[in-house]
Amino acid sequence: MQHESLVRLGVFASVLVVMALAELAAPRRRPAIGRTTRWPGNLGIVVIDSLVVRLLFPVTAVGVAVLAEERGWGLFATLALPGWLAVLAAVVLLDLAIYLQHVLFHAVPALWRLHRMHHADLEFDTTTGIRFHPVEIALSMVLKLAVVAALGAPPLAVLLFEVVLNASSLFNHGNVRIPAALDRVLRWIVVTPDMHRVHHSVIPAETNSNFGFNLPWWDRLFGTYRAQPRAGHDAMTIGIEQFRDPRELRLDRMLLQPWRDDAGRYPIGRRDSETGPGDTI
């Protein structure tokens, strides 16, 4: 695991470049706001996030997994599972934890104020998948370390999960056109861009759906799946009701968003939030 950082960085950079090129070659939607306006903030925030994690956390999730393995911590230390099965089960359980965390950040108004910076992007492309507030990243890291220790997840499983999570976030936020027939098949296996784009709709009932990042099964299992946006992918409005001014895409304004305006009607359970049953495929 000594090359963990290089592996993660290499996969991240490779997927980012591939997705950026794919968006140029076969875009799903014609963007109204160009990359030169949006990308400085989106790429700048990932640099800040990386620095925050480096400064606040002396050990990575893989490091906690190694420590748990050495000291016999967690659920998997009590189970006599074959190595391959332990890795597979841990990856699935970690994905479930990320799904539940995502729902939590939509349900608690104070957490939504942090998470909504991700949703305040006025377009939807691969860089939206790395646009998270540093405070949210820090809180997410605390939760991730706790889950890894509680599970006693194998270090290999944690490394695989981290790599896949970063890659899938870049993929499922991509502004890429996938044939409808292929998308219908893929979204039973992975979260596709068309599936996740619904989650970035300005309509609260659609924002509070399709929470999955890697595996699409949790949304179907827990009733948060919505097949398509009401207005269709070409006509739907991306973002949230607040922060519609393109100036809000500047890095300094992005960082201050959690402390500006109220939580609005997006947090799950708000009475004035528009509700409705999800569609199914």
TrEMBL record:
Residue ranges annotated for the Fatty acid hydroxylase domain, each copy included: 88-224
Membrane-spanning residues: 6-26, 46-67, 73-94, 141-161
Example of a GO biological process term: lipid biosynthetic process
The protein's location, in the record's own words, is: Membrane
Keywords, comma-separated and alphabetical: Membrane, Transmembrane, Transmembrane helix
Q: Name one GO molecular function term.
A: oxidoreductase activity
Give the record's GO CC terms: membrane
> What is the protein's given name?
Sterol desaturase
Q: What is the lineage of its organism?
A: Bacteria, Pseudomonadati, Pseudomonadota, Alphaproteobacteria, Rhodospirillales
